[in-house]
UniProtKB/TrEMBL annotation:
<comment type="similarity">
    <text>Belongs to the sodium:neurotransmitter symporter (SNF) (TC 2.A.22) family.</text>
</comment>
<feature type="transmembrane region" description="Helical">
    <location>
        <begin position="45"/>
        <end position="72"/>
    </location>
</feature>
<protein>
    <recommendedName>
        <fullName>Transporter</fullName>
    </recommendedName>
</protein>
<feature type="transmembrane region" description="Helical">
    <location>
        <begin position="314"/>
        <end position="340"/>
    </location>
</feature>
<keyword id="KW-0813">Transport</keyword>
<dbReference type="InterPro" id="IPR037272">
    <property type="entry name" value="SNS_sf"/>
</dbReference>
<feature type="transmembrane region" description="Helical">
    <location>
        <begin position="12"/>
        <end position="33"/>
    </location>
</feature>
<dbReference type="Pfam" id="PF00209">
    <property type="entry name" value="SNF"/>
</dbReference>
<dbReference type="InterPro" id="IPR047218">
    <property type="entry name" value="YocR/YhdH-like"/>
</dbReference>
<feature type="transmembrane region" description="Helical">
    <location>
        <begin position="224"/>
        <end position="246"/>
    </location>
</feature>
<feature type="transmembrane region" description="Helical">
    <location>
        <begin position="153"/>
        <end position="172"/>
    </location>
</feature>
<dbReference type="GO" id="GO:0016020">
    <property type="term" value="C:membrane"/>
</dbReference>
<feature type="transmembrane region" description="Helical">
    <location>
        <begin position="352"/>
        <end position="373"/>
    </location>
</feature>
<feature type="transmembrane region" description="Helical">
    <location>
        <begin position="432"/>
        <end position="450"/>
    </location>
</feature>
<dbReference type="InterPro" id="IPR000175">
    <property type="entry name" value="Na/ntran_symport"/>
</dbReference>
<keyword id="KW-0769">Symport</keyword>
<feature type="transmembrane region" description="Helical">
    <location>
        <begin position="93"/>
        <end position="120"/>
    </location>
</feature>
Length: 453
């Protein structure tokens, strides 16, 4: 396999568009839905502090590694990694890394699309006033009823998948780049608008305290592992996303600098999201719930009972939808690129086929909440099983392999060339973080999260 000098899918027009696209990938449900809550639960400011350290010592070296492998290989993750393996005459087993990443992105897309479908529907219902003056009990009833209707869920899941694949089919510059150029500024405006709304509730300080008060008593060993897992997921690592986006990055752009900006923007949005959500929850005297409960049960009650809640609630779900959309694009792009490069398909055909495959797999998730809710394997339904497989097993393993691969298997000359630096302290900081600290940390998360131990 020879290495092309440029990806056949084209390149980002500028460093800025790459940063927009990669930040769009990073900012997703993980930032707006998960981060605020886990921060509040695990010791507020103390947790945010630990999370920042995890981003610096684990997330940043790994995202740099992925983008560098992508730009060096100039193809989909499977080919890029196989090329390096061949070039260095390393053990062929390393090629598994590319497969793990590509499959992880594909599988995450399948369930992300189903859940983003819920967001779609909730945004619309919020705008139409369905949640006006509802009680917490009503809210739970509405949510359960919604989940019990497979055809409704199918409609929203299909619509979300279709829209994502339409963008992907249009290609790197005319599809993905155009989409993020329009959507990312809208996302920023939406989050600032919601922040202003949160300020007007009079409960801003309470929200600020919930997220930032240093409470070391709540910061356990477990919280540290949670912070590492979150740093990993929020930067879209080990899913092929950053690697494929890296393969479209023009030469001459500094990877470490660009990655630093992506990690900083991603973290800033996660913090702003928390500052926007909690005052709204507290304004109505509600308790912040975890997981799907916060977004689909608690927030509709809060918005439904507040002045202007109908409009701002709809804007909130729109924000969530945009964040999910730009992430979903990056999850499936590697699969589409692989179909084009290895199976000689046009981009349209590859998007259709890749999208159809992920959509079909998504049906398993969709049915897990209704018709198949009783069907379990290892005590988990279909959705819980694939979520577990990908987030607790495939992604950590992929992450460890990428870290070791970039730092020890790829030749020093090639990696220095990609990072645009000389062998000096900067390189060694990266190499020790990516090649030693990151794999050990991810291994800890891995052993912690798999249930056999
Ligand atoms: N980073 C995204 C989020 O925080 C999730 C994601 C994972 C996106 C993997 C792309 C690839 O929600």
């Amino acid at each position: 396999m020879s290495k092309p000098r440029k990806s056949i899918h084209g390149e980002w027009s500028s460093r800025f568009t790459f940063i927009l696209a990669a930040t769009g990938s990073a900012i997703g449900l993980g930032n707006i839905w998960k981060f605020p809550y886990i921060a509040g639960e695990n010791g507020g400011g103390a947790f945010v502090f630990v999370f920042l350290i995890c981003v610096l010592v684990l997330g940043l070296p790994l995202i740099i590694a992925e983008v560098a492998i992508g730009r060096y290989g100039r193809q989909n993750p499977i080919n890029s990694i196989s090329n390096i393996v061949e070039e260095n005459k390393s053990h062929p087993m390393w090629a598994v890394t590319g497969w793990l990443c590509l499959l992880s992105g594909f599988i995450i897309f399948s369930f992300y699309s189903v859940i983003s479908g819920w967001v779609f529907s909730y945004g619309l219902q919020m705008g139409l006033g369905t949640f006006q003056n509802i009680s917490p009990d009503d809210s739970i009833k509405i949510f359960n009823q919604f989940l019990s209707q497979p055809w409704t869920l199918l409609f929203w899941h299909s619509l979300f998948s279709l829209l994502t694949l339409l963008v992907v089919a249009k290609g790197v510059q005319t599809g993905i780049e155009k989409a993020v150029e329009i959507l990312m500024p809208v996302l920023l405006i939406l989050i600032l608008t919601l922040l202003a709304y949160a300020l007007s509730t009079g409960k801003f300080m309470e929200g600020l305290r919930f997220m930032f008060d240093f409470d070391f008593s709540k910061l356990t060993g477990e919280s540290i592992l949670i912070a590492m897992g979150q740093a990993f997921f929020t930067l879209s690592l080990a899913s092929g996303a950053m690697m494929i986006y890296g393969s479209y990055l023009p030469r001459g752009i500094s990877i470490p600098k660009a990655c630093f900006m992506i990690a900083a923007a991603d973290t800033a949005i996660a913090i702003l999201a928390g500052l926007a959500i909690f005052p709204i929850v507290f304004a109505h005297g509600l308790e912040p719930a975890s997981g799907p409960g916060l977004i689909f049960q608690t927030l509709p009650v809060a918005f439904g009972n507040m002045f202007g809640g109908q409009v701002f609630g709809a804007l909130f779900f729109m924000l969530l939808l945009l964040a999910a959309f730009t992430s979903a694009i990056s999850m499936i792009e590697a699969t589409v690129a692989w179909l084009v490069e290895n199976h000689d398909m046009t981009r349209n055909k590859a998007s259709l086929l890749g999208g159809l495959g992920a959509w079909l797999l998504g049906l398993g998730t969709l049915l897990s909440f209704n018709l198949w809710s009783g069907k379990t394997l290892f005590g988990k339904n279909f959705f819980e099983n694939i979520d577990y497989l990908v987030t607790n097993i495939m992604m950590p393993l992929g992450g460890i392999l990428i870290a070791l691969f970039a730092s020890w298997v790829m030749s020093k000359h090639s990696i220095l060339n990609e990072l645009g630096i000389k062998e000096g302290p900067g390189f060694w900081v990266w190499r020790v973080s990516a090649g030693l600290i990151a794999p050990v940390l991810v291994l800890l998360v891995f052993f912690h999260s798999i249930e056999f131990f």
